[in-house]
Design brief:
CATH superfamily of the largest domain: Response regulator
Distance between the termini: 70 Å
Number of strands: 12
Radius of gyration: 25 Å
Helix content: 40-55%
Largest sheet: 6 strands, parallel
CATH class of the largest domain: Alpha Beta
CATH architecture of the largest domain: 3-Layer(aba) Sandwich
CATH topology of the largest domain: Rossmann fold
Shape: elongated
Order of helices and strands: HHHHEHEHEEEHEHEHEHEEHEE
Structural class: alpha/beta
Amino acid sequence: MTTIRDVAKEAGVSVATVSRLINNSGYVGQQSKQKILLAIKKLNYVPNEIARSLNRKSSMIIGLLVPNITNPYFPSIIKGVEKCAMKNGYMLIVGNTEGKETNGENYLNFFKQYNIAGIIKVDGTHLDTPEDIPTVSLDRMNANDRFAVIADDFYGGQLIGQAIRKTNHGSVLIMTGPMNMNVSQLRLKGIQSVFDPAKIDYHIYTTNSFQMEFADQVAREVIQKYPTIQTVIAPNDVYALALMQTWNQLGVKIPKEVQIIGYDGIIFGSYAQPGLSTIQQPAYEIGYQGTELLLSIINQEINYQTTKIIQIKPQLLQRNSLREVE
């Protein structure tokens, strides 16, 4: 493997001169610069990013924390982050926390060791990110987060309420995500802002997690507890698809006997039979705009001591899992 010493020897300059050019950390004469660039090209030298980061006090790497890499919603966020990061010369390290704060803390320690340039947090946990590392939260945020790009969850709940209100809904079950999460509270409030004035009765079933591995178990519990329910509002698309699969196995007709709407807008919802109506979150845009925000902080275009929260509107995807509008 070619080293910086090999480049210096080929160019006939000192190692310190090569280092100044690579790290843009000092003056290098034009003649020496041309010799170094020719040597780098001839030897196919690739700088050691970790070594460079030690000199610059930060790397060209962004750390991204997500709660569940297997959930089809999060890869769309990751794609947006990656696209923007690479466009601006940054690489990405993705940490899958599985919703556990201990996993998140382990990743944060790893990020600090490698002088990460900034952190993007989709985890929604109360992780204490280092004060000296720029951090942006995506999709989920806590009260103490100062920089975030999120979907308008209250508006998403309103879209659900309006879609259900227009149908022959019958008895309604609202399934919420964990109520210690702001997204769950906002979506529920959005639904209730439509249902309560219209005097629509509903039951509430709170799930303990958004994680995929609990979807089948929750589906069975819901069907057993509410065997005659006529409308279900699922906390996300994965749970909605698990319910639809179980109903299909039981011979329950969707949407004639029970109608359902999900949340997220993952691609698999369009392949379900019938197609899953859902609230489509702008996942890619959240990832891309969140990375733009982070880079603005890193480049000191935004004061890190201020606050900036960007909200993006979700939209209703009407498919065949809801009854026709009355």
